[in-house]
């Protein structure tokens, strides 16, 4: 029987190694060929070769990082674990916001003409509004997702400190103490 875990573990390493052999040769071939034959397509090919190298590095390095993080997991404090969950939540929000605020309205406005629907001139402004809304929504959502930023913006820590100083001021005279 074939162990799928071993295949999953070793195949990316093999292809990552092969990518580091093939892609530099590919880049060399791109740069040594006459520019009149490829024109600007040369840069597209170069982009793909660079992306392939970066992806191969990520495919090899990420499992190593995950192993180290799993070893550290038993030694991390509860506070750090909670903070990592909050950062993951913020990352999910950063992924969802562009999809619904920018991408989805633009796709709708681009595909409406395919169905021969005429929604008038206001539909032309959907893309502009969507892209402008993203620039506002993304930082606001991140500030609201992360308690560190949320507490600073809403001044929660300062209010708690002020309440403590009001409750126990340093110059309060004890009522049972004898007066002179």
From TrEMBL:
Signal peptide: none annotated. Keywords: Membrane, Transmembrane, Transmembrane helix. The keyword Repressor does not apply. InterPro entries: 7TM_GPCR_serpentine_rcpt_Srj (IPR019423). It comes from the Eukaryota. The chain crosses the membrane at residues 12-31, 43-66, 87-116, 128-149. PANTHER family: SERPENTINE RECEPTOR, CLASS J. This is Uncharacterized protein. It comes from Caenorhabditis nigoni.
């Amino acid at each position: 029987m074939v162990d799928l875990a071993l295949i999953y573990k070793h195949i990316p390493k093999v292809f990552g190694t092969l990518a580091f052999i093939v892609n530099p040769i590919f880049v060399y071939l791109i740069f040594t060929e006459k520019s009149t034959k490829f024109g600007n397509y040369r840069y597209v090919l170069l982009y793909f070769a660079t992306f392939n190298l970066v992806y191969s590095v990520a495919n090899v390095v990420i499992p190593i990082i995950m192993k180290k993080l799993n070893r550290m997991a038993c030694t991390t404090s509860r506070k750090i674990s909670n903070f990592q969950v909050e950062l993951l939540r913020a990352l999910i929000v950063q992924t969802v916001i562009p999809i619904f605020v920018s991408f989805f309205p633009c796709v709708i406005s681009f595909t409406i003409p395919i169905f021969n629907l005429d929604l008038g001139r206001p539909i032309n402004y959907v893309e502009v509004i969507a892209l402008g809304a993203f620039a506002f929504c993304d930082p606001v959502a991140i500030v609201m997702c992360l308690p560190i930023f949320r507490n600073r913006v809403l001044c929660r820590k300062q209010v708690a400190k002020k309440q403590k100083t009001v409750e126990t001021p340093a110059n309060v005279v004890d009522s049972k103490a004898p007066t002179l």
